[in-house]
Every structure is written in C-alpha cells, then in structure tokens.
Amino acid sequence: MITSAMVVTDQGTSQAAGPGAAWKNYGNSKLELNARKSIDGSKVAVCATDRQINSPRNKWINYQGRRVIGAGQEYRSNGATFEVKDKVKGTTVVFPAAQEYRVAYLAGQLRGAIDKGDPELGATVYAIHSLSGRLTAEQNRSAQIKQRAAQLVQQAAAYAGPYQMAAPEIKVNPGSTQGTVYLPVPQSAAGRPMSGLKESVTLTGPAHFSSKGQPKTLSTSSVSTAKELPIEVTGPGKVSAQVQVLGLPPVSYEIWEHTRWQDLLIAGPNSQISTSAATSVEPRQFFAVKTQTQSQMRPLEQGAELADTILVKAEEKWGKTTGQETWQTVMIDLSLYGPFSSARGPGQIPTEAQPIKTWQLPATPKNAEEAENGVTISNETDPYKIDQPGFYTFVAAAHRDLQPEDTHLKADYVPNFFEEEETQVLPFSPGVKTQAKVVTDKQGKILTDQVELSGFPDDHPDFVGTGKWKGDEPVVRNDLYCLPQPIKDQDTQGKEPLARVELPAKNGTYTVDKDKDGKPLSLERLKCKDTYVFVTSYEGDSRTQAFRSSETETDEQYALPQAPPPPSSEQTVLSATGASPSAPLSAALIALGCGGLLVSYRARRK
C-alpha cells in the first residue's frame, strides 16, 4: 500500500509591500486588550506588541510591508517599523519559533472571541501577548481575564498545529467486490483528535462508495475515532483514497508593518490537511480445477461407441462470478485420441498426436454442495462411434484461454495422456486360413498344414504390457486330434491331442509339419483309425480377440482312405459292358493313392 500525507495552507513565507485595510476596533482599549477587524470583515488583527499607536479607525491604511510567519518560524521584528519600547525602534524576537503554531491557533480564535464579547476577546489577546512575554501593565489588571487566558494557552497547547493525520486504510479481500475505507482521525501536534470538521473522501480507480448513486466522493465530518466507509470494487487494478480535512485552525499568521502605526498580527487562514493511500485490488476469484474421469465403451453391431464421464472439482474453493452470487462456469475441453495399436504409460500428450474429436462441456455448480464436491458432466448424449480396432484415450482438460469471460482459472489443467480410466480398446480380430495335405517324403507320409495368420497389430506380439494392459499373447495353437465320427463341436474337451503345435501370434504364413517339440507329423507315428482334426485356437490378450475353430468344420478334418474288401472266391460273371475283373483292384489302388486334402476356413471367435 502506498501512502502519503500533506498539510496545506495558502500561505508561504514572503515579503511584499502594499497591503492595506480600514479597521474597526473591538474590545477594551483601556486595558490594551482590544482587537481590530477590517471593514470588509476579511481580516482580524491584534497588536504585534509594537509600542506605536493604533492607526485611525475606519480609515484606509496602506502598510509598507507584509510578512507571513509559519511552519514553526520565529517572528523577529522589523527594526524600521517596530518599537521595542516607547519611541525606541529595534529588532527583537517577538514570538520564538516554539510558539509559532500556538500564536497562529490563538489568532484564529480572535474572530469568534469578538462575537463572544469583550471578556473573551480580552482573554484571547492576553493569551497571544503572553506567549511573547511582552505584556503591559494595563493588560495585567484583570485577574479574571488572566485566568481565562491561561485556559486558552492550555487549549492552544492541546489543539495547535502542526496537524497530522495517518493514511487511510483500504481493505478489500482478494476475490471480493466488497471493501472498506478506514478513515484516520485528524490530530493536533499534541495528539488531540480534531473532530467536527468538514472531511471529504475521494476514490480513484475501479471502485466507488456503496451509498446511493455509487459516488466516487463522499463528504462527512471528522470524528474522534476511526470511521468506516463501505466501498464496492468494480474490477482489478489500483484503488486510491484521498482524505481531506478542511477548516483546521490556522498554522500561520501575518505581520503587517508600518513606520508610524502599530505593526499588526493578522490571523492566518484556516488550514487543511490531506492524506492518501493506494492498494491493488483483485475482485475476481481465481481458482484451480482438476478432473476425475471414467470412460465407457458400449458395443454396437459394428464397432462400438465411446463416452466419458467427468467429475470437475475445485482444488480449494470454486470461484463465484465477480460481483454476483453465482458460480463461475468452467469449460472442459474433452479430446479423444486414437486409434493406437498399443497402449503406453501415462505421460504428456505427444506433439504429433491430434484428436479425432473434441467436445466443449460446461461445468457450473448449481448449489453449494456441487461447488464443494464437484460437478459431473459427460458427452454421453454425443458419443463417438468407432469401427477401427485399437486403443482410444480421452483427455479432459481445462485451458485458461478457452474459458468464458467471467471465468478465472489460476492455471491450465491438463491430465496425463493415456490414463487407464480414460482409455478403452476395440480389440483387433485376428483371422486364419489353412491348407492341410499329406506329403510323402523319405520319412514317410507327413501331415502338413499351411497356416496364414492375419488381423494382428503390426507390432504383435512385441507389446510387453503397461498398467492394467497385459502383454501380448505370443502363441497360436494348431493342435492335432484324433476323433471318431460323428464329430461334434467341443469334442476335444478333456482329450489329449495327438500333437501340440504352436505358431507365433504374428501376421504371416507358416508351414506346419512338426509339433512343438520338432517331431514330424508322421502318419506312421501319429496313428489314428478315425479322423484327424486340426483345432486352431488363440487365447487373446488386451488388444486382440480370442478365437477357436470348431471340430465340426470338415475343412479341418482328414481321414485315411479305407482298404477295399477282399475278392470273392466265386467267379464273377462279367457284364456285357466289358468291364475287366481287375477293375475293382485298380479302383482300390487309385483310392490308396489319394492322399491330398485342401482346407480353408475362417476361425470362429470365442
């Protein structure tokens, strides 16, 4: 807070020629306790203890000199105009500097003393001259006047200047539009309160008084205790208050000098004092927010839709609108990013990441409970539909530059990117095609399978996991079973496979002719009197769907050709078609040589 104070009079120490006046006398001239008032009433004077005679009454007198005595100065007489004793002119200290303010105070009482009558006027003149010590014998004749004069001297000691006043105090709590100006008490040099004086208070800056009409200046009267004036602040900035007290007793007096007539002590003008203070005000309520969020994914026939529920909370206290009892509206900038093939740990938003959609969601407390506990908002009325597999993550941020004009956030709030509660995944749907056949090589007949895997993320199975997102499942199983006809779905449950086959869960084409231990899928080794059945299965993981083929899919079944029945001993009578007796055998041989089978399927999802 900046403060300043200033005492003001319209006087300064000066030397000037040519003042003049026509005087009218008041008081008891015999006791030499009289005073004079100018005909126009503007001046009140008393003899400056000069031993020269008074000027003629009601006659205009031009004086040779005029001096202003103030600011604790001594009054030293002019040897050319001042008789220090009868018929002797000279220089002397009439009033020492220590008495200057009291002389000025008592001179200021002359006008009122004239109105009160000769006794009060005589006591006032006596009190003034007593401060110089230059009293005449005639002035000392009245004990009553001397007693009253002593009281006036004590009064001057208590209430004379220089006058002082502390700076006003401006109090406005941060975030409030209501404040108070505390007015100081004007005081005398002795610390006595100067009450009953005209006092004005002027505000500058973004504030006004709370009274009717919202004035910038108020007039009041000074009192002996601090006074409070309510104010209203209209905006941020610097508010200053200047307090001015008028009508204080004089703090200076004049000496009018004449070579023939008495030098006169003229009462100075009433003085005034002003003081001011300034302070910075901030009526806007700044506050910080944070969010607690939970995303949701609802499946659709094709893809899914994403929504986010957000609890917006103030870190300390939710700010109110400036000058109102309503709460500020916080605009939440909700952004959706994706799809990403894999998840990542929470962190800053990558510079290259661009949202696929944004929502502007307002959060305004309806009552004090919501202001304290938070406001829940959501984009569930406008969800985002997705059909591409991958990870999607929301970010619910509050940016200062996106807020309404009357919303004042302390800082931006941007949560971590890829928070678990804000992330959903639409799983990838891997697929498989197979082509099984029997190949004869030096090891005999080998059952082989050409497997084509597709639909995995490109980096599958390299993702090791983070947070709740577990790492990739690395294996696709392509186990071989022997099942009797008729084959039903799930027939392999509880059965051990003839061979366990594992493939990497990665896009590509793989030729399978060995089990997981590297042993060939030899029909000689893997005996099956029934039907060979390949069952392809995948357990899935955080970002891919599981799948399993059905045992009933004939494209995954293979049966050995059956041998023909032995020939009958009876002679067969050949038909006229000319069929050869060797035809059945030839047919059987042909059948034995058929070992090929083409299998192609799209695996069913679990």
Automatic annotation (TrEMBL):
Region (Disordered): 544-580
Highest taxon above the source species: Bacteria
Protein name as it appears in the record: Gram-positive cocci surface proteins LPxTG domain-containing protein
Lineage per the UniProt record: Bacteria, Bacillati, Actinomycetota, Actinomycetes, Actinomycetales
